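Researcher: I'm preparing a figure for a lab meeting and need a structural model of a single chain. I don't have an experimental structure, so a prediction will have to do for now. The sequence is pasted below. Please return the structure as C-alpha cells so I can convert it later.
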Amino acid sequence: MIDIRDVRKTYYMGDIELEVLKGVSIKVEKGEFVSIIGPSGSGKSTLMNILGCLDLPTKGEYYLDGKEISTYDENALANIRNEKIGFIFQKFNLLPKLNAFENVELPLIYRGVKLKERKSRVEEALNSVGLFDRMHHRPMELSGGQQQRVAIARALVGDPSVLLADEPTGNLDTKSGSEVLKIIDNLHNQEKTILVITHDIEVAERAWMQITIRDGLIQDRKVN
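Model: Understood. Here is the structure written out cell by cell.
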C-alpha cells in the first residue's frame, strides 16, 4: 500500500542546506492504522506532505499502491491526491461559502462524477459521520466537531486508498475530539488504511502501529 524507502528532504535557503528528513523508511499495508508522532521540528509535517503527495522527496523512493511516484510531475501528483488520498486537516479546510453537502461534493466534481451519483455518495458520506441532517448548513453554522466530521465525510466520499489525518483533534475540545476519534476507530474496523500525524500520545496510542520521529529520523516503532 505505502512503501517509502530512505526518504530524505532538504530545503535550500541561499547557501544554507536544511536537511529535515534524514533517511526515513516506512511500510504500511492495506487496512493498517498507523500513527506518526513527534515534537515540533521533528520532521513529521514534512513527512506528511510527502505521504500526501503535496511535496516530493529530495532523495529516496515512494511507492503507493505499487506505483513509484517520487518522480511524478505536479499534474500527476494532483491526480493521485484526488483519486487515492483522503485528507483530514487540523483546521478542517472547508470552504466557508459552501454548505456541508457542497464541501463534501467538491472532490467528486473534480473527478467528473455525474450529478446523480454525486448526490448519492455525498449523502452516504454525511450520513456515515452523523451529519445527514446538517448537509445544508455552512461551516460557520456548525460546531468545530461537526466541521471536522464534514471534513472526514469529504475525505471518504471518493473512496480513497489512504486516509491521511493531520492532527485531527488539534482544534477540538475533549468531547468533540473523542467523537472524531471514535469515527476514525470505526473506519479502521472497516479496514480503511489510516495514517495519523500527531503530537498527542493519547491519539497516537489508538493506532495499531506507533512510529516516533525525532530530528528527521525514526526513533522508535511499536505495536500498541
